[in-house]
């Protein structure tokens, strides 16, 4: 009887980004929740609607209908409109834990979001380029927040 080959590679992901949004902190936070939730999409603009229960202990998951889906995380902390923190496996189906943190500050009608994504565990090669996905999501969120509003 042969032993299976075992190759474990403990890896990490660390992404830090500042996003400047020309909108109030309240509008920006609402756009962030929308983009993480029902308006989420893939990098090729294919809808990937998510559910985000915006309260401590709330779930963040992809709802495929008929009680199917993929759990991404739990709201660890939320302080509207200045903080959203989520922990969980996110898009990875391997033994990994992630902490996402969005901190928002407003100055003169411009909101600065400090974003941090930290993961550790068995981060497979296919998940190591997460920065592109976040950049797409953040750009869409910025566009949503900066879009003209009806009066």
- Biggest sheet character: 7 strands, antiparallel
Structural class, from secondary structure content?
alpha+beta
Q: Which CATH architecture of one domain?
A: 2-Layer Sandwich
Radius of gyration over all CA atoms, rounded: 17 Å
Task: State the name of the first-level CATH class of one domain.
Answer: Alpha Beta
Order of helices and strands: EHEEEEEEH
CATH topology of one domain: Alpha-D-Glucose-1,6-Bisphosphate, Chain A, domain 4
Q: Which residues sit in consecutive blocks of at least 5 with pLDDT less than 50?
A: none
Count every beta strand, where a strand is a DSSP E run of 2 or more residues: 7
SSE topology sketch:
Elements (H helix, E strand, L loop, with lengths): L10 E11 L3 H12 L13 E3 L6 E7 L2 E12 L3 E6 L7 E12 L2 E12 L8 H17 L5
Antiparallel strand pairs: 1-7, 2-3, 3-4, 4-5, 5-6, 6-7
Helix pairs in contact: 1-2
Can you offer a commentary on this structure?
There is one protein chain. By secondary structure, the chain is α+β, with helices and mostly antiparallel strands. The chain has a domain at 11-36 and 76-146: Alpha-D-Glucose-1,6-Bisphosphate, Chain A, domain 4, CATH 3.30.530.20. It has two helices and seven strands. Strands 1-7-6-5-4-3-2 form a seven-stranded antiparallel β-sheet, with helices on one face. A hairpin with a 2-residue loop joins β3 and β4 (68-79). α1 (25-36) crosses α2. The longest helix is centred in the C-terminal third of the chain and has 17 residues, at 130-146. The N and C termini lie far apart (74 Å). The mean pLDDT is 90.
């Amino acid at each position: 009887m042969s032993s299976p080959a075992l190759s474990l590679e403990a890896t990490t992901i660390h992404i830090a980004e500042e996003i400047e949004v020309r909108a109030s902190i309240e509008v920006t936070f609402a756009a962030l929740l929308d983009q993480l939730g029902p308006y989420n999409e893939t990098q090729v603009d294919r809808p990937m609607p998510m559910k985000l229960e915006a309260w401590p202990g709330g779930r963040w998951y992809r709802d495929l209908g008929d009680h199917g889906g993929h759990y991404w995380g739990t709201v660890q902390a939320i302080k509207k409109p200045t903080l959203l923190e989520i922990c969980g496996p996110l898009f990875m189906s391997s033994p990994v834990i992630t902490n996402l943190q969005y901190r928002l500050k407003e100055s003169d009608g411009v909101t600065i979001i400090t974003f941090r994504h930290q993961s550790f565990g068995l981060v497979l090669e296919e998940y190591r380029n997460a920065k592109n996905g976040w950049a797409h999501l953040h750009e869409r969120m910025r566009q949503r927040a900066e879009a003209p509003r009806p009066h």
